[in-house]
C-alpha cells in the first residue's frame, strides 16, 4: 500500500506525541528510566562436596553444582564480566547430613571451605555472600531442626533454629564471608545473628535479610540443585503467597533487628511487594529471581517460543523498575557480558 503525502492534510491537533521519544534506538536509550548494570546483579552459585567434575543441574540447564575448583573459575568469569557479588550455596554429601545440619558450621563443611577458597582468591575484589540456612544440611531438608510441639505436631523449632543460624553465621564470617544471608524465615533470626556476629568481633560483616520470602512452587528446581531431602513443604515458616501486609511487617521487623539489606523472594510474581518494600525501606532492597523463574525462561527458550536474550533483559529490567536495587539471578555473569557490549 502506498500512502501519498498530502501537504494540505491537517493532522491531528496533538500537543503531546509520546512516540517522538521512541523513534530511534539512540532516543530510546537517552530517555530510558531504568537501566541494568553489572553492579546490580548478584551471581548465585552452588558448590558440592565429593564430586570431581561440575554436575549440570537437570532442571536448571546451564547451571552447575561446582567443585571448589570450578567454583573459583565461575567467580573469575563473574568478576571479569563486572559482577561485584556472588552468593554461595553448599551441597554436602548425603552422609554428612544430620537432624540439625551440623556440617553447616563445621569449618571443613563444603560451604565454609568454598567461602574460604573464594575469599583467598579474590580478597575484597568481589563480595562473598553466603546462604545462611540449614535446609541443604539437614537430613529431613527443613530449614531448622524438627521437634514435637506440646500438642504433638511436628514443627520446625524456631528458637533452636536461630541458635544454629548464629553458629553458622559465625562460621561463615570466620571463613571470610563479607555478607551472611539468612533465608530460613525464623522469627528473630536477624537479631540473633547480629548479636552473635558482634560478640565474636564481626561487627563489619553485613546481613542480607530474606525478609519477605514466600512458600513458593518456584523453588522447585532449587531442590534439585541442592539435592534437598525435603518431604512436604515450608508453609509453617515461609509466607503465604496470598499476603502482602505480612511482608511489610516481616521487613519492618528485620530492619528493627538490624538488617543491612532486605530482600523479596521470588521476584517476578511479587513485584508489587518489591515496589512497596522499596517505597519505605531505608536500606537497599534486593529481589531474588529464583530457580523456577530461570527454569521457565530456559524451557520456553529451548522450544524456540521466546527470544531468550530479550526476555531475560525485559524481566530483569522489570524487577529493577519495580524498585529492586540489586537482583539475585542465575544470569548475572551472562547478562553482565551482554551489558558490557551495549545490549539492554
Ligand atoms: C532455602 C533457600 C531456598 C532458596 C534459596 N534459599 C529454597 C527454599 O526455601 O525452599 C530457593 C532459591 C531458588 O529457588 O532459586 N535456604
Description:
Helices cover 37% and strands 17% of the residues. The chain contains eleven helices and twelve strands. The protein has helices at residues 25-31, 68-81, 110-122, 158-175, 189-199, 220-225, 245-257, 271-280, 291-302, 308-321, 332-340; strands at residues 41-48, 55-56, 64-66, 85-91, 127-132, 146-148, 154-156, 179-182, 206-213, 261-265, 285-288, 326-329. An eight-stranded parallel beta barrel has the order 1-4-5-8-9-10-11-12, surrounded by eight helices. A two-stranded antiparallel ribbon has the order 6-7. Helix 2 (68-81) runs parallel beside helix 11 and helix 4 (158-175) crosses helix 5 (189-199). The two termini are 34 Å apart. It binds ligand PBG. Ligand PBG binds at residues 131, 133, 135, 183, 219, 222, 234, 290-291.
Index terms:
alpha/beta, 11 helices, single chain
**Strand residue content:** 15-25%
Percent helix among the residues?
25-40%
Small molecules bound: ligand PBG
Low-confidence stretches: none
Can you name the CATH architecture?
Answer: Alpha-Beta Barrel
Encode the helix/strand succession as letters: HEEEHEHEEEHEHEHHEHEHHEH
List the helices and strands and how they pair.
Layout: H1 25-31, E1 41-48, E2 55-56, E3 64-66, H2 68-81, E4 85-91, H3 110-122, E5 127-132, E6 146-148, E7 154-156, H4 158-175, E8 179-182, H5 189-199, E9 206-213, H6 220-225, H7 245-257, E10 261-265, H8 271-280, E11 285-288, H9 291-302, H10 308-321, E12 326-329, H11 332-340
Parallel strand pairs: 1-3, 1-4, 1-12, 4-5, 5-8, 8-9, 9-10, 10-11, 11-12
Antiparallel strand pairs: 2-3, 6-7
Helix pairs in contact: 2-3, 2-11, 4-5
Residues 131, 133, 135, 183, 219, 222, 234, 290-291 line the site of ligand PBG.
Amino acid at each position: 500500500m502506498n500512502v501519498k503525502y498530502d501537504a494540505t492534510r491537517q493532522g491531528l491537533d496533538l500537543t503531546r506525541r509520546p512516540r517522538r521519544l521512541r523513534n530511534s534506538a539512540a532516543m530510546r536509550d537517552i530517555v530510558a528510566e531504568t537501566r541494568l548494570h553489572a553492579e546490580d546483579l548478584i551471581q548465585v552459585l552452588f558448590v558440592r562436596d565429593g564430586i570431581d567434575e561440575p554436575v549440570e543441574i537437570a532442571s536448571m540447564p546451564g547451571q552447575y553444582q561446582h567443585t571448589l575448583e570450578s567454583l573459583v573459575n565461575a567467580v573469575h568469569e563473574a568478576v571479569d564480566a563486572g559482577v561485584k557479588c556472588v552468593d554461595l550455596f553448599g551441597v554436602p554429601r548425603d552422609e554428612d547430613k544430620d537432624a540439625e545440619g551440623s556440617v553447616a558450621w563445621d569449618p571443613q563443611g563444603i560451604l565454609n571451605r568454598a567461602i574460604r577458597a573464594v575469599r583467598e582468591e579474590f580478597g575484597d575484589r568481589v563480595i562473598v555472600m553466603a546462604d545462611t540456612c540449614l535446609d541443604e544440611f539437614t537430613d529431613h531438608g527443613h530449614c531448622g531442626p524438627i521437634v514435637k510441639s506440646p500438642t504433638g505436631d511436628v514443627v520446625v523449632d524456631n528458637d533452636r533454629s536461630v541458635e544454629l543460624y548464629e553458629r553458622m553465621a559465625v562460621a561463615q564470617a570466620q571463613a571470610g564471608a563479607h555478607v551472611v544471608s539468612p533465608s530460613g524465615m525464623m522469627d528473630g533470626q536477624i537479631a540473633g545473628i547480629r548479636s552473635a556476629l558482634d560478640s565474636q568481633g564481626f561487627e563489619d560483616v553485613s546481613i542480607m535479610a530474606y525478609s519477605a520470602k514466600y512458600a513458593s512452587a518456584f523453588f522447585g528446581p532449587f531442590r534439585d540443585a541442592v539435592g534437598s531431602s525435603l518431604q512436604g513443604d515450608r508453609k509453617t515458616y515461609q509466607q503465604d503467597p496470598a499476603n502482602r501486609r505480612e511482608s511489610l511487617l516481616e521487613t519492618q521487623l528485620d530492619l528493627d533487628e538490624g538488617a543491612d539489606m532486605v530482600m523479596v523472594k521470588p521476584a517476578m510474581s511479587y513485584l508489587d511487594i518489591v515496589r512497596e518494600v522499596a517505597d519505605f525501606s531505608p536500606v537497599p532492597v534486593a529481589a531474588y529471581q529464583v530457580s523456577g523463574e530461570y527454569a521457565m525462561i530456559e524451557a520456553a527458550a529451548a522450544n524456540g517460543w521466546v527470544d531468550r536474550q530479550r526476555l531475560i533483559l525485559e524481566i530483569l529490567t522489570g524487577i529493577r523498575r519495580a524498585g529492586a536495587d540489586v537482583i539475585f539471578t542465575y544470569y548475572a555473569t551472562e547478562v553482565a557480558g551482554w551489558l558490557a557490549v551495549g545490549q539492554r
